Amino acid sequence: MTTNNTRLSVAMIGHAFMGAAHSQAWRTAPHFFDLPMDVRMALVCGQDGKRAAAAAERLGWADSAPDWRIAIERDDIDLVDICTPGHTHAEVAIAALDAGKHVLCEKPLANTVDEAERMAAAAERAAAHGIRAMVGFTYRRVPAVALARRLVEEGRIGEIRHVRAQYLQDWITDPEAPLSWRLEKDKAGSGALGDIGAHIIDLAQHIVGDQILAVVGHTETFVKERPLAAEHAGLSGTASAERGQVTVDDAAVFLARFGKGAVGVFEATRFATGRKNTIRVEVSGSAGSVAFDFDDMNVLEFYDATEPAETAGFRRIPVTEPGHPYVGAWWPAGHWLGYEHGFTHQVVDLVHAIADGADPAPSFLDGLQVQRVLSAVETSSDTRSWQEIPR
Ligand code: SOE
Predict the structure, then answer these.
(1) Gfo/Idh/MocA-like oxidoreductase N-terminal domain location, by residue (predicted)?
(2) Are residue 151 and residue 216 in the same domain, yes or no?
């Protein structure tokens, strides 16, 4: 249901895994949430015109084009949604913002701090004209994560002491798994660190409402050479006879100090055999703890240290009540949500921010800060030393 005040025509760039997830969000949001704008899925762009046309048909876009520049040139496009690999983000986002188009950009914001700084500067210039930019750290919008943030904000767990965050996958444990673009530094920027480590950095900072000030870490590439991909490969794909160098990390681990004194332990890996997409964040405070596990994503664990010791204990809160963040728009209590709902919530929050003339979160500045943490972890690993995060 929309109130149809103003039209928002969207062009999406890229149509693979993330493109499909974003498409379902744009399709679904107006049907479940009262949006202040009339969203139109106007255009999808991809390098291969035929594949882009097929994606338009399959994913619900009105039109397709073989070049992202067409989205920038078209006057009827109000928002550009970037779902392509990291090396394209800066060029597309800056062109779109400079052309007066709102931008939603997949994470990590960029491949380097320099690119992220230029993107944040473009977002600041555009904001002066009412143009908004958001980075897609989608897991913030899982209701149980939003509830964790709310409880921390309300002081329910007191002063934050510890953050434990893990993002565990295993899709390249097999040394013969092909070398997809996610394993190439010039396309992806980094490996597990930027692809999934970026999510837990954002999640941790978001939940505790604080920023990482310094890190010490180690990155590792376990399998240094792999077969090249025989065909365009995302998380799967077939291998060719030729081999190539893996130029990114397979795993990254680091310790962190937060601004208000908390300490953090982070682990991001594509080699956690048996773990497909496990995200765990646990925060311990002076008055309690919260713990989130994406494998049980509709539940938030909460420990209230102010309860009498004889009955205190971690409680599983099913985050499915209408009063829980985002949940009221969906199903009656007890009917669980999934991976895709976070993307819908992301679109809903972005459309509201645009209509309200407010800065959406996470902003490009937030994306830049995460980029600085990623870069500091790499420098720390290279130099074997603690690294401060520039403010
Ligand atoms: C692959 O690791 C990937 O698709 C990431 O790129 C996404 O950001 C994550 O949500 C799921 O896994």
Answers:
(1) 9-126
(2) yes
